[in-house]
């Protein structure tokens, strides 16, 4: 009797446990079914991406009062890890309706998890967006998301330091990287300040240089693009030249990088438009900054415009509220000038929606940047950024390059180094 | 008699039934599943059976071999340093003449209760180009210009080794300390009467008496080092180049940073399993009790 009771209790406990695992799933389904006007989104950086969604929600609510949006904020790495594990396990219940995707991950996700993300090809007018953003979202002639913020680059510079070294704004317009190095040497000599920072662990610089020459680490066919690629060769030559010239202060991480210009250690920062917020953090440098176009590669096809970073919005194909999520994104981030104007004014975010560029918000001047109409400049440069295919192995290629970078900086033969990077990359993606 | 034995054994089984079921479900099942997964390759959900393909790839994968080399380097250099340091500190703290024992013990144990990520970030900022460490060396006129510790392959590894030693020495020390307190003081007394020096006593009495504990700490430290992740990711993120990347970080990269190849990541995980097993057997052979 006792024995039977114990066994019964144990079984009850076990089934209870298992049932608990199962039922949570059902609840999640119910809540999304009943609240059919509610959409859940995952995003990182609540003050930027989260803020953008909130603005979009307000705009969408005017026409659809019953609409509700829940933004779940998590760190970028956590979000990517969660998405990957859920999709690999084939579990879509725990996933949101809308998800933010970093541009280099777009092809990777679409190819690794076929049928998981919604096709937006016919629901949004993509001719209204900068071409290179749409290119990044296009796979096999289908567009898999809504272009969001861009990372068009510029050369932020300290007007006071460059004036001290004897340079005016005209001297910095549309220069080449070799000219940049020469200016840097003078700045270092006359002011004692560095021209820029350098971090061999960070591939931002090589990315900016490559894209300004219309090239990338990998070819559109997802093959390594290191050997016989003049843009790559020139990029690495310049990288070494900058490192050797002594104009760059070595930093080891993001906070040191930001710290270096906030503390006034460097005269220029070549970075994406989103860097404006960090530069403006140093309130004591108000009025001392300006922005010039990105230096260019002195080769055929090199332009004074590039891109760093940027992300897009995806909708999950199996989401219960797929149509609502699509409609919401399409009507706001995918086609509302009002959204982009407010996004710029309230969160400092620059999008790639061309109709908004002529708006008042994009023409505003900034006191911090010596009354320059910086956003108008950035958006103009954004139209010149060469379109590239990011492919699906960007990170592998960057790591293969990073592996060889110390040797390159130590003066190894560039042709040989590029061949070994290519080989390493091919081994990584087999 | 037989019936009684059965009954008590049944009650015993009832106690272990639930935990066993849970261990089977959450520990053994994933192990088997990941072993099966290690024979598949592909990207994300699109994977296929490749037989031993992943295992052959492993031996020709320069990135894996680099990570393996780094991890073994930490192991060979860091574990002996840490264990010897732990033993010496434990011995000093065990001295009956020492005052403020509790304070020292707490102070040395404290690092290993700090959060992995926060202490890693602390080390990162200490060894930054503008960091306190460079400032100190500059002020002492040992160096003329700041050293970029984390941008040099050799120094970056030194910083990682310093960091893990700082964090885990106190942890091992506690094991030694408690073991030392179990050694009968009369043994030392007898040795003193026989004229053995303090050093001689440490080498000939303390260390042999502590042998099982030393073996235990050696195995758990080996295990821990082979799974090293947080420190490297937070201090150097594997750089410069990939010169500080560990196997665990490589597994993470394969699963979440690169185009996900969970099959190959599982294969690399099983490489760690094999290495841990081999090293544990070796350590038991070298340091274990002779039967």
UniProtKB/TrEMBL annotation, chain A:
Signal peptide from the UniProt entry? 1-19
| Key words of the record | Signal
Recorded hits in SUPFAM superfamilies, A to Z, give:
Periplasmic binding protein-like II (SSF53850)
Superkingdom is Bacteria
PANTHER family, per database record: ARABINOSE-BINDING PROTEIN-RELATED, SUGAR BINDING SECRETED PROTEIN
What is the protein name stated in its UniProt record?
Extracellular solute-binding protein
Q: Which organism is it from?
A: Candidatus Pristimantibacillus lignocellulolyticus
UniProtKB/TrEMBL annotation, chain B:
**Bilayer-crossing regions:** 12-32, 72-94, 106-127, 147-166, 202-220, 262-282
Q: Where is the ABC transmembrane type-1 domain positioned along the sequence?
A: 68-283
- Tell me which PROSITE patterns the record gives: ABC_TM1
CC per GO annotation:
plasma membrane
Its ancestry begins with: Bacteria, Bacillati, Bacillota, Bacilli, Bacillales
Give the UniProt family note.
Belongs to the binding-protein-dependent transport system permease family.
- Provide a GO biological process annotation: transmembrane transport
Q: What CDD domains does the database record attribute to this sequence?
A: TM_PBP2
Going by the entry's taxonomy, the superkingdom of the source organism is recorded as Bacteria
Q: Where in the cell is it found?
A: Cell membrane
Q: How does it sit in the membrane?
A: Multi-pass membrane protein
A family per Pfam = BPD_transp_1
The reply to whether Transmembrane helix figures as a keyword in the UniProt entry is yes
Q: What is this protein called?
A: Sugar ABC transporter permease
| Species per Swiss-Prot/TrEMBL record | Candidatus Pristimantibacillus lignocellulolyticus
What keywords is this UniProt entry annotated with?
A: Cell membrane, Membrane, Transmembrane, Transmembrane helix, Transport
């Amino acid at each position: 009797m006792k024995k039977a009771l114990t066994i019964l209790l144990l079984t009850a406990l076990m089934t209870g446990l298992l049932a608990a695992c199962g039922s949570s799933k059902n609840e999640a389904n119910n809540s999304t079914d009943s609240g059919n006007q509610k959409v859940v989104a995952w995003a990182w950086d609540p003050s930027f991406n989260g803020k953008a969604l909130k603005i979009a929600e307000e705009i969408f609510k005017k026409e659809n009062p019953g609409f509700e949006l829940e933004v779940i904020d998590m760190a970028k790495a956590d979000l990517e890890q969660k998405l990957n594990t859920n999709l690999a396990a084939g579990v879509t219940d725990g996933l949101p309706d809308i998800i933010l995707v970093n541009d280099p991950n777009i092809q990777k996700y679409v190819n690794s998890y076929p049928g998981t993300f919604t096709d937006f090809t016919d629901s949004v007018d993509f001719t209204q967006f900068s071409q290179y953003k749409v290119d990044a979202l296009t796979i096999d002639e289908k567009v898999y998301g809504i272009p969001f913020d861009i990372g068009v680059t510029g050369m932020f510079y300290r007007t006071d330091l460059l004036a001290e070294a004897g340079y005016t704004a005209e001297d910095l317009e549309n220069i080449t990287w070799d000219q940049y190095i020469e200016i840097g040497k003078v700045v270092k000599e006359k002011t004692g300040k560095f021209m820029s920072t350098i971090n061999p662990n960070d591939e931002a610089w090589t990315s900016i240089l490559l894209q300004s020459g219309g090239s990338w680490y990998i070819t559109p066919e997802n093959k390594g693009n290191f050997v016989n690629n003049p843009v790559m060769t020139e990029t690495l030559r310049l990288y070494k030249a900058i490192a050797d010239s002594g104009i760059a202060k070595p930093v080891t991480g993001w906070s040191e990088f930001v710290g270096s210009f906030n503390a006034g250690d460097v005269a220029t920062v070549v970075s994406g438009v989103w860097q404006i917020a960090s530069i403006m953090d140093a309130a004591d440098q108000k009025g001392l900054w300006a922005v010039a176009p990105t230096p260019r590669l002195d080769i055929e096809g090199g332009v004074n415009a590039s891109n760093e970073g940027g992300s897009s919005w995806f909708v999950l194909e199996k989401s219960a509220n797929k149509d609502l999520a699509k409609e919401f994104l399409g009507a706001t981030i995918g086609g509302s000038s009002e959204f982009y104007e407010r996004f710029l004014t309230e969160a400092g975010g620059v999008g790639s929606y061309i109709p908004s560029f002529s708006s008042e918000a994009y023409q505003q001047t900034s006191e911090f940047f010596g009354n320059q109409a910086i956003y108008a400049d950035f958006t103009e440069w954004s139209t010149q950024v060469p379109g590239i295919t990011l492919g699906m192995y960007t990170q592998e290629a960057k790591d293969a390059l990073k592996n060889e970078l110390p040797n390159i900086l130590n003066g190894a033969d560039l042709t040989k180094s590029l061949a070994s990077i290519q080989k390493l990359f091919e081994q990584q993606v087999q | 008699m037989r019936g009684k034995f059965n009954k008590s054994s049944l009650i015993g089984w009832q106690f272990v039934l639930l935990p066993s079921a849970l261990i089977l479900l959450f520990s053994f099942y994933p192990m088997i599943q990941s072993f099966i997964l290690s024979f598949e390759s592909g990207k994300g959900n699109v994977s296929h059976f490749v037989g031993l393909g992943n295992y052959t790839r492993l031996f020709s994968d320069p990135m894996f071999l680099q990570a393996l080399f780094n991890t073994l380097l930490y192991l060979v250099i860091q574990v002996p340093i840490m264990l010897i340091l732990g033993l010496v500190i434990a011995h000093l703290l065990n001295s009956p003449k020492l005052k403020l024992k509790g304070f020292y013990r707490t102070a040395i144990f404290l690092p290993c209760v700090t959060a992995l990520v926060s202490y890693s970030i602390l080390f990162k900022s200490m060894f930054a180009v503008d960091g306190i460490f460079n400032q100190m060396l500059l002020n002492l006129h040992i160096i003329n210009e700041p050293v970029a510790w984390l941008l040099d392959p050799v120094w970056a590894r030194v910083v990682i080794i310093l960091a893990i030693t700082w964090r885990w020495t106190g942890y091992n020390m506690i094991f030694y300390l408690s073991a030392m307190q179990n050694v009968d003081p009369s043994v030392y007394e007898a040795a003193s009467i026989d004229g053995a020096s303090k050093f001689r006593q440490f080498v000939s009495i303390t260390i042999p008496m502590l042998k099982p504990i030393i073996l235990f700490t050696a195995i758990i430290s080996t295990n821990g080092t082979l799974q090293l992740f947080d420190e490297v990711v937070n201090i150097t993120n594997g750089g410069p180049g990939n010169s500080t990347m560990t196997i665990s970080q490589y597994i993470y990269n394969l699963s979440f940073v690169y185009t996900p190849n969970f099959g190959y990541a599982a294969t690399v995980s099983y490489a760690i399993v094999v290495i841990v097993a081999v090293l544990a057997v070796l350590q038991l052979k070298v340091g274990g009790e002779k039967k």
